[in-house]
Amino acid sequence: MKSIIHFVSLVLYYLIVNKIPHKFGGRKLRLLLFKCIADRVGTNVNILPNVHIGKGKKLVIGNHSGIGVNSRLDLTNSITLGDNVMTGPEVMIFTGVHHYKDTTIPMSQQGSTSEPVRIGNDVWIGARVIILPGVTIGNGAIIGAGSVVTKDVEDFSVVAGNPAIKIKQRKHLKTS
């Protein structure tokens, strides 16, 4: 029964609901279907139109998080978004990669591997960011627009570029 609900939810999502604007109830419908498609979806999650998630399995989204318009999540392996994660438009997160080292065999015949991507809490991912397999983004990190994240990002770091490099560390503000 669960697989039938998952399949019907996927069909409805990709054929109809994925394209409905917020003002016509798209936000609530996408959230409802994502709860049937993904492994876990927290409360107050915001999925914008035209987000591609394949079959949606292996996806975990924390509370108060959102996925930007036209984003693409490759769920060859798992993707976990913590709480309060903001992603800009056209973000791409990849978990799979093709093998290529043996030059005597075409790359298309060498197989592939996958590694999970983990995104911590209170993370801001700018527009058109690409995150590659196996990356962990720490809590409180900021990823600048257009960056390609090829390695782990430390907690409270600000990174940008291709490949993304650390620009600065966010300061902890003490309140009295």
If you had to describe this structure to a student in words, what would you say it looks like?
Pfam families: Hexapep, Hexapep_2. It comes from Aneurinibacillus migulanus (Bacillus migulanus). Keywords: Repeat, Transferase. This is Maltose O-acetyltransferase. GO terms for molecular function: transferase activity. Strands 1-3-6-11-14 form a five-stranded parallel β-sheet, with helices on one face. It has helices at residues 2-15, 26-37, and strands at residues 40-41, 46-47, 59-61, 66-67, 72-73, 79-81, 86-87, 92-93, 96-98, 112-114, 117-119, 124-125, 130-131, 136-137, 142-143, 148-149, 157-161, 164-169. The chain is globular and about 40 Å long. The chain has a single domain (40-169), classed as Hexapeptide repeat proteins (UDP N-Acetylglucosamine Acyltransferase, domain 1, 3 Solenoid), CATH 2.160.10. The protein is of the alpha/beta class. Strand 17 (157-161) and strand 18 form a beta hairpin. The mean pLDDT is 93. The chain starts with a helix and ends in a 7-residue tail after the last strand. The protein contains two helices and 18 strands.
How do you describe this structure in short?
With 176 residues, this protein is an alpha/beta fold. It has helices at 2-15, 26-37; strands spanning 40-41, 46-47, 59-61, 66-67, 72-73, 79-81, 86-87, 92-93, 96-98, 112-114, 117-119, 124-125, 130-131, 136-137, 142-143, 148-149, 157-161, 164-169. It contains two helices and 18 strands.
